[in-house]
Amino acid sequence: MSRPHRILEQVSGEVVEVRPGESLLCAMERQGKRCIPVGCRGGGCGICKVRIVSGRFDYGLMSCSHVDIDQRSQGLALACRLFPLSDSEIRACGKPGHAVPQKQ
Amino acid sequence: MKKGVIRPGHIQLRVLDLQAALRHYVDLLGLIEMGRDEQGRVYLKGWTEIDRFSVVLRQADEPGMDFLGFKVVDDATLGRLGEELAAFGCQVENLPAGELKGCGRRIRFEAPSGHFFELFAEKEQTGKWGVSEVNPEAWPRGLQGMKATRFDHCLLYGVELPETLRLFTEVLGFSLAEQVLDDAGRRVAQFLTVGMKAHDVAFIEHPEKGRFHHASFFLETWEDVLRAADLISMSDTSLDIGPTRHGLTHGKTIYFFDPSGNRNEVFCGGDYHYPDHPPVTWTADQLGKAIFYHDRQLNERFLTALT
Description:
The complex is a heterodimer of chains A (104) and B (307).
Chain A: E1 5-9, E2 15-18, H1 24-30, E3 49-54, E4 57-59, H2 69-73, E5 76-78, E6 82-84, E7 88-92
Parallel strand pairs in A: 1-7
Antiparallel strand pairs in A: 1-2, 3-5, 3-7, 4-6
Chain B: E1 5-15, H1 18-28, E2 32-36, E3 42-45, E4 55-59, E5 64-72, H2 75-88, E6 92-95, E7 106-110, E8 116-120, E9 150-158, H3 161-171, E10 175-181, E11 187-193, E12 201-205, E13 211-218, H4 222-234, E14 239-245, E15 252-257, E16 263-268, E17 280-283, H5 287-291, H6 300-304
Parallel strand pairs in B: 1-4, 5-8, 9-12, 10-17, 13-16
Antiparallel strand pairs in B: 1-5, 2-3, 3-4, 6-7, 7-8, 9-13, 10-11, 11-12, 14-15, 15-16
């Protein structure tokens, strides 16, 4: 229960260790990593959008203008509102116009 | 006030979680809850504000700004401006008195930027919160958090800045107080005022219509801004940038996000504008300094995180 979940971000190859109850983005910032761009941290701006490749997550509220029902079912989500329940793999999307990591 | 528009009156913001938003706007910013309506909207104000409310929160599945409202001098002016807005080419919608609790009839229109604005002539005035109208004390006891004094202005991102400027200056009587010009002399940012403040509403050019950058609240002093920064850390609130100073308007500022990702500013100081003053100009090659006078560097999140 108390073991952090290990989340691999595939574009950078970075691994983020996420404590129970902590959001993926919050854990990434705490560890000084930059593999997902950081925006509002509140599910509103869409900058930290990721694609879930594998693993289980709890979801917080996020703006439907950035992740609608269809996109959610395709595995898209905002990292600031993702709470990992298992070791997982994700890919940072990098939003058009937001150049922060964008390694391809 | 050349055309009878007096000042900002209210902003309605969408939030994902109303309870979380209230902890932010009431407990942290120090706005005062003034009531709720049958739609579940919550009405707030800063303690120095005379009107019953200036901020309305509405729970929705996407954050952002519903509309920004300005007060005009009287109902005849409201009628005349409605006609002038229609003649300009705006679709004008009439909202009956009471649709916002304590507010008279409003007219709503979409600016070319893609944002919705409103005008109204009457709103219940409950006076400053916690101090008497006669022989008022300096400030009330019992304020919370940052003790924000008033809703002050908004910055909006959108399209068609030149037509938006024409609407606000020619129809609504605003002045262009500050601007940013690119190398070709094109205006990429415009700060508009209807009184003596450096801005009541500002626009930055952006490819998408109708986006919201921030709502700003006024504090008295730089010490208050630093205290706000302490409270942002104490409450683990999402910080954007600051405390720092702007080049544009020269206000002293800190930016942070509400729990739904809407950006807020608290600030103090800043320049003033009389109607005969020419606009202050910043050039786009100095944009870093224009936005953050100390860092002098463009900050990507500040430019791109919008709701």
